[in-house]
Specification:
By secondary structure, the chain is α/β, with parallel strands linked by helices. Helix content is 40%, strand content 24%. The chain is built from nine helices and ten strands. Strand 9 (207-212) and strand 10 form a beta hairpin.
Length: 250
């Protein structure tokens, strides 16, 4: 479980996050949604420690990550897996080398054990016999799968995904959503996904935090979101392609 309390962040005197609280539970798809510029990606960076909050605290299973000492923060970072918006694979490394990278950096695991772990994770995301391929030789959807394999290769307790469906066609996006959801449940991971894809929200949103202009305006589940009494949230939901398709079918 990850808990955030009173997270504030400003850049050049401009407030971007204005006292955000929230609880992201284990084994659930926790989604942070909102229009561009609402602060959701900045919040994600504050949670993982890429950007220090000006005020507030982030707890990883009760551990004070924000104010903890170097050893504690290092321990938590070893338990974190990240899936970046553009997959962020190393172009000069093969698929196998990309997935193995966290093991090379964070562990002293013997080479044969690292290779076994890499092959296990690639198989789990539906990619076998692609170890030697370079990122330029695989599709966008396959790159996302490689990114997921890399994110879980170190037995991550916490999985962070920044716009995992960015640049994907709708069918491939559904596959990636389902894969992240399956892995979250299978390994009981605390997963946080930043997204603007309403299809993802309605299919996988166990817990949804809606942000608007640096504030958390609403939280709830995918079942509750259609009945939310928040104008800004309703504007986002009903303007989405998901709702346009839903209305068309009726």
């Amino acid at each position: 479980m990850i808990e955030i309390k009173n997270i504030h962040k400003s850049f050049n005197g401009v407030p971007v996050l204005k006292g955000i609280d929230g609880v992201f539970e284990k084994g659930r798809m926790n989604l942070i949604i909102g229009a561009s510029g609402t602060g959701k990606s900045v919040l994600l960076k504050c949670i993982v420690g890429l950007v220090p909050p000006d005020e507030g605290t982030v707890f990883f299973d009760g551990r004070d990550f924000t104010h903890g000492d170097r050893d504690l923060r290092t321990d938590v970072r070893r338990e974190i897996g990240m899936l970046f918006q553009g997959s962020a694979l190393f172009d000069s490394k093969s698929v196998e080398e990309n997935v193995m990278f966290p093991l090379d950096v964070l562990t002293k695991m013997p080479q044969d054990e690292k290779l076994d772990r890499v092959n296990f994770c690639l198989k789990r995301v539906g990619l076998e016999n692609v170890n030697s391929k370079m990122p330029s030789e695989i599709s966008g959807g396959m790159k996302k799968r490689v990114g997921i394999a890399r994110a879980i290769v170190n037995n991550s307790h916490y999985l962070f995904c920044d716009e995992p469906n960015s640049g994907l066609d709708p069918q491939t996006a559904i596959v990636i959503d389902n894969l992240i959801n399956e892995i979250t449940n299978e390994y009981n991971i605390t997963t946080i996904v930043v997204t603007h894809d309403m299809n993802s929200v309605m299919e996988t949103g166990d817990y949804i935090m809606f942000m608007y202009q640096g504030n958390k305006l609403w939280e709830g589940s995918k079942e509750e979101i259609l009945h939310a009494d928040v104008k800004e949230l309703n504007d986002l939901v009903y303007a989405s392609d998901f709702m346009k398709k839903l209305r068309k079918n009726f």
